[in-house]
Design a protein that fits this description.
Elements (H helix, E strand, L loop, with lengths): L3 H16 L12 H4 L3 H15 L5 H5 L4 H10 L5
Length: 82
């Protein structure tokens, strides 16, 4: 099972790279669309996360959660992260 802190760090790093923003601009409770992430980006992020962590992740997980915090909570509820 994946560690929540490792997944959070990976998501932040991915968003920093994708959105060309500083890490300090990425907050756990800021909505993805406010950061500039769209649905296509979310699907790409799901695929990249699957590849990085070698785990199957439904793209809908990223579409039904609007913040990093809610995404991680959903992943914990689904037994993906602890």
């Amino acid at each position: 099972m994946l560690k929540a802190d490792a997944v959070r760090a990976w998501i932040i790093g991915f968003l920093v790279s994708l959105l060309d923003v500083s890490e300090s601009e990425i907050k756990g409770d800021t909505r993805f669309h406010v950061m500039g992430l769209n649905s296509v980006d979310a699907v790409v992020m799901a695929g990249a996360m699957e590849e990085h962590f070698d785990v199957e992740i439904e793209a809908t997980l990223f579409l039904r959660n609007s913040t990093i915090d809610s995404l991680l909570a959903d992943m914990q509820a689904n037994g993906i992260v602890e």
